[in-house]
Amino acid sequence: MSLANLIARETQRFLETHPKSAAQAKALDAHWLFGAPFHWMKDWAAPVVIIAEDGEGAVLTDIDDNTYDDFCLGDTPGMFGHGRPEIARAVAEQARRGATFMLPTQESAEVGALLAERFGLPFWQTTLSASDANRALIRWARAVTGKSVIVVFDGCYHGMVEDCLVELRHGRTRPDAGLIGQVFDMTRTTRAVSFNDIGALEAALAQGDVAAVLAEPAMTNCGMILPEPNFWKRAQALATKAGALLILDETHTLSTGPGGATKTWGLAPDALVIGKAIAGGFPAAVWGVSAELGEKITAAKTSGGRSGIGTTLAGNAMGIAAIGATLREVATAEAYDVMLAGAEALVAKLRAVIAKRALPWCVVHVGARAEIVFAPEPPRNAAEMRPALAQGELNHALHLYLINRGVLIAPFHMMMLVCPATTTQQIDRLVAAVDSFAEEFARESA
Ligand code: PMP
């Protein structure tokens, strides 16, 4: 059987087990563009959109009563598990007393202190999404440095941030292939460099016109790519020498440890962005800055400047309550211990399957997050990763195969996240499904 036939078989199986989702998908088509409230919801390998019913811990249920071991966790907002009672209580209590006032609540001071203590930067602001936080910091970085250029890494994703929708092709920064609706040339003010290439970073900084380097500590949106030893130490030193700020986007790498990769690896950025899971999945994000950068930002603002930054709901009382509950009760050291141990076990078991089946794949692992990469060695940059990501049929087949065996992983690539509620049985089911797929796949490709 070819991969195409396997996909056809699995598509049939999916449709047989998801009749209510299929019917509901037709109803969605009537008034939602793309047939869903947001078009990414259609990016799964499933032939029709899965209609979610319930989420509890690491289990998701759909309206056909299928249950899934959820290793996607909403692509990270549910990193500490779905339906956490601590978050539900905090949000509901605040909603009863008023959702948003454009005023701080009593709890805000404590939440600021919790952020400072945990992440090691003294001053914070909130937004509704990590995209907004990145956009805000890029603007502040340009304001305080008086420089226009930002440096990002090829293959990056920092959300709906025009400045970052670029890639490196034939040594030049280009808008992302196929990008629609882009009317200004962001390549004039954004420079993309290859991850782990310290020489390229040095060259990108050499003209002295860089306001900030914006990066994930480990890349997680172009497959997963880890920094080489000492990369960040050297990159930090280069940025400082060039007078550029280092902004680390920990939106995904918060899964590395309680203080993100920054704390775990002893990094010293000027600014941090943390979104998605920071409010237990409730829509909120935060950005934090060093004392020095905080002073400069305050000076830029108080010198009569108009920031042009913000949205009415930023800092809303429910979001603050959810962040407080997350930091105090949910994202605890004990929770991380369980997540990290679970991910270690998952990675060891996946690597054993890969070895047993002699697959030309590897597993990249950081903290509670892991990725199966269709390449024998972990890629060091986006150019090396792209051939692995281009195996579209294999990617589609494995995702669909997993869905049909009750396993969800991030729809865009092979990324898995372990939450505090993830059980050994769930890990074993995922590994068994990958193993049986590999057996069929090996049989097919023989
Ligand atoms: N930064 C990173 C590293 C991300 O992975 C994402 C989303 N995948 C974002 C920012 C944007 O987050 P949001 O969609 O919440 O704006």
Automatic annotation (TrEMBL):
InterPro entries: Aminotrans_3, PyrdxlP-dep_Trfase, PyrdxlP-dep_Trfase_major, PyrdxlP-dep_Trfase_small. GO terms for molecular function: glutamate-1-semialdehyde 2,1-aminomutase activity; pyridoxal phosphate binding; transaminase activity. Its EC number is 5.4.3.8. Keywords: Isomerase, Pyridoxal phosphate. Its cofactor is pyridoxal 5'-phosphate. Pfam families: Aminotran_3. The keyword Isomerase applies. Belongs to the class-III pyridoxal-phosphate-dependent aminotransferase family. NCBIfam families: PRK07046.1 (NF005453). This is Glutamate-1-semialdehyde 2,1-aminomutase 2. It comes from Terricaulis silvestris. The lineage of its organism: Bacteria, Pseudomonadati, Pseudomonadota, Alphaproteobacteria, Caulobacterales. The gene is hemL2.
